[in-house]
Amino acid sequence: MVEDQSTFETYFQAFRAPGEQEPILIPVVRHPILNELYVLWCDITTCFPRATRVQYTNIFVPMLKDDRLYRAKPHGIRHHPDIVLDVIYGDWVSSKVIKQKKRGVIRGTIGGDAIHTANDGESIGDTIDGEGGETLDMSDSASATTHHGADDTLPIDGDDILGVSDWTVQVEGRSVQASVQETNISSHSASIGDEDLGAVGVDGAVGEADVEVKVEVEVGGKVEDEVREKAEVEAEAKVETECSARAGSHTTPIQQPKSTTERSPETGHPLPATPEKEDVPKPSVALKPAAAKPATTEPPTTMSIHEDHLRIADVVANRVKDILNIQNSWWNSYPKYFCFLPVLATTTETTATGMTTSGDSLDKISDKTVFQLCNYCDCGDVASQKDPSHWTFGNSHTDVPQEHLASIIPLVGEFIVAVLEMIKYRVVAGDIIGLFPESTLDIHRRLSLAIRFFELKGVQSCEKYVRDNLAGSSSGMLDPVALPSQEQVHDFWRIIKRRSWMTHEMMPHRIEGGHIAWQCMLHWFPTSSTESERVLGELMDRTSKDIEYATETGAVISTVGTLKRAREVFRLVEALSITTILRMSLQWELTQDDEREIAKEIVKVSVAAIHITVQRASAVQDSTNTGLGYGLVPLVMAAFQNSKLDAFVLLAPTPDERHKNYISDERSYIVSSFESPPAGMVALISRRTGQDERVKAILRASDAALAVKSIRRIAQGFHNFSQLEFTRDCADMDITITFAAPGSGKPGCEVEDTDHNNRDIVSFFESRQWCDEIKCDFDVISDGAYSRLKCLTRLSMIFTLAQDRAKVREIIRMNRNLKTLLLYNVVHDDPSQIFEAFKSLLFNHPSIEMLRVEHSHYRMAPSMFTWSNPSDPAKMKVEMTCHGGDRLQAMFQRYAPQIEGLTLERPRPEDIAVLEKSSRLKKGPMALRRMAILWVNQMEESVRHDLKTIILRRDIGEVVVVGSAAAPTSGNREGETGSRLGDSRSKSVTRSSLDNRNKASSSGNISSTTACTVMADFVIAVRSKITMLTMCDGTHSKLFEELEQIEESLDMPRLVSISLAGGWDTTMFGCAWFEKLIKSKRPGPYVASSSGGMPGPTPSIQLENIARTSVITAFHLAQVAILPEEWDRLITYLDFSQLVNFDVFQTNAFNLRTLFKLADAIPVDCGRLAKFTVHDGRISKEHAYKALFERFRTKRIGKNVRILVRGMRFY
């Protein structure tokens, strides 16, 4: 009997005997050593004299065991509250051998021979089939294993009512353990290295034990509980007799301690008593395993498995401490905790009468095992909820095949394993017990199998960490699991939704702090009020035409035609606590009084997001005076005032019916509206949750400059905003102000806008030391707009030198904190004249950092001329990306020494002649560090000659040569991009079409042979300086033949990037020159050859500085046939530890062995790798995918790395 000191309550265990209608209650006691509630076996036999066993739904309930899995004395069973246990009558059998004739048997001998199977030579346990898939067998209920060895197993931490009968006897410290197992037998067994689970069997070497029990069971069938019990009782009785004879009588007398028991506030179940301690302040969030720790009594053995179990639980607690603090926002359409559990196969048995009965679930994961997406409702976070959370499974048709998990594991694999272990080891946050699984028979078994499955896929687990003795001591801990990024979580749920693995029977419930808890209907109805149930019933009534409730998004959607009905909808929404989104369409012409009434309701409503569509969008005088000429200002201000509102979308009708917004998912629509404002947008407002609750607003303005000052006054200060943007449908000016966050470390970021009625906004930004960014985009500057802008930090505008010169000068003069000036020049003025027009102002400007002039071209990338640090002539640098139609002579004459980066596409001869003169050594040093020559084969001979001279004359760090071996044809460059240039500085460069309308020189019609000769001549001439070689069209073998004629063509010591795309009439190494080139780039010392064949002066110091050849870091091939033996040689030539980009598309099919070699060639630490892609237009089979995944999972791949093999993405 357990007594409570305040209420003296007694707890009972209910039993039902055969033939009895009503259950019989037996009082429970607390074990004197284990400190657990249990029922004495002698009390059971007193009430039921012929009782031999206790079971629940045909499952044996084992005796209470201690940490070593020995029967605890005094004997008894654990207390199972709210469950009626069945008492089974029978006879005590003392036969030494028990036999049961069935087909297909496994004989387990304890103390004798090892297990023999019905088919000789077949192994029992884990099997991994290299071709047909893998089988994971965990018939020992695969719980966490200690670090002592594979034979040590932990007690089940979930429900005590198990479908497995494991028992252990002890003879003077030597244990004999028999496990009746449901075993998967496979004729093909393969080792899986360090992660091999080991064969699951019975150890026959038991030393001096005299006990022998033989059990015959059906393979894959259901073991008779009575057979297990009789064998167990006989073995236990014999061992206890022997132990008593050797060690003397040391049985602990049966005691009935008086201890204090409290009832759990969540479940009403008794909690284990805890020893009295001094009062310690309780932390706000306590991480702990929910299972009670054993009493401090010293166990009989030196090592306790229960201690290791607690050790794993401690590691789990540290591992998941960040996960327990997750708080979902309204835009998260999923609960906090989710995982995958295997769907275990179930055996069937046909009886003599023809009836089919279900047997036990098989304890294994085979290659055909599917998984269920399991969600935990967040009901434990709801203050009014007392019951624990529970599983929510999808329907059977939403089961997840294992191959689909391959794309999920890289995204949230560690998170899923952490959740699985958090549930298995009952790690909870504070006093909210919201993570206990239901009392299902196989839940613990499925958890253990899932954890081991993800371990095999390369995901770290706490069990494996302890099992491999990585911790080293009890204080060793794994680092907490890094929470998945928003992008990773969104990608994961995008996969889930695409495959219809949806969250079922859960609704978002807004809780304290503005967070969202996904509450299940099972828990919501008992805690909801009658009014809430009535409102929900009304909203979900499909006969109502003007209002409905979407359960998956928690959105109330209504279309109202009167102000009275609008008020009623607001009342219904306020009464229903689970509402997160309100979407309302007002189908009448709003007056100003109507606007004020709607605004009052918006201020009071408690929802996360509001989406309102109105009919009236005409301007009124009050709105025009504020610069918000589209009206509806009261509604916008009400959204600012409601601190509970996270998002507000206000739309007006559009004259074009095609722009009407169709909304399938209200949550996604609101989120995407802030990325791309919808048609008819009047206002978009979002408020950040957490410590920084500032507002981001996008407002439709008629006068942006006036609206900035008006919103400052209406919102009572700029410090309430994180970003403020004003825009128009046909915008002549957009203004975006980004305010520095408090605590960001920027000087002045802590200053608040207290003088918000002052219309001088410049003084406010000065008080904040200009830590904020004010960006203005003009299409056309009106005559008076620019004069009111005095606080810009960034300006971009459409510009012509003749019309806008004075306006830009005035803007530069007034905005003393202007940092960036972007001018889109549509008439192709001379860029040097544009800079000279503002040169004096820029030299004296205190903060200007960059001036950029951009020219647009027909079907070509824009030309860009960028001056950085224009206020300091000594530090000023120039970047140029130019085409043949640009005016370049003055640029080269004036700024050649300051040019740091230069990209040229078919320049005119007179322009390059000026550049060649400016680059002569007597002109002094040049800052040129990067130079890209595009389409060498299309340039005139004089242009190519001058470029060779410039490249060889100056020490340029990066030289990119792009050309083609094909004869130029009209339009053959259309649509191509310059992404293969590989360098981020060249992203803006695209391959132009040959039929552009610029006045560029042409080399005339040439043949492909001539193109190859021209390209080869240029490459050979500048070979010592080339760092990147790109060929896009034509037959490369012709080019290689031209290069092979010159032996020195292989002397490319600086070459680090090769990109070849186009036609191949041979295999990759069918041309000896290309193989020699790649072979020469192998790691190792390299001595550059003489500069024979190079035109122009070549200072010897340039070649002497090259001590060794540079290895290939970027390798791109396309439309080429590669033989397996060529792959073998290529792998030896490349240094995969230095590769950054590897991209190959071959025309012939890949050999599977080649793919394996490529995967093995990537080093374990591949920190430099950014992209690895190989493809042949085909898809690998499932077994190949699994084998490749096993190889790639051992690599330590960094973030944002893309690995794609035959269309299968691994990272």
From TrEMBL:
Compositionally biased residues, Polar residues: 249-259, 987-1006
Protein name, entry field: Uncharacterized protein
Organismal lineage: Eukaryota, Fungi, Fungi incertae sedis, Mucoromycota, Mortierellomycotina
Biased composition (Basic and acidic residues): 228-243, 973-986
Organism name: Linnemannia exigua
Chain segments carrying region Disordered: 117-155, 228-302, 967-1006
Annotated Low complexity bias: 288-302
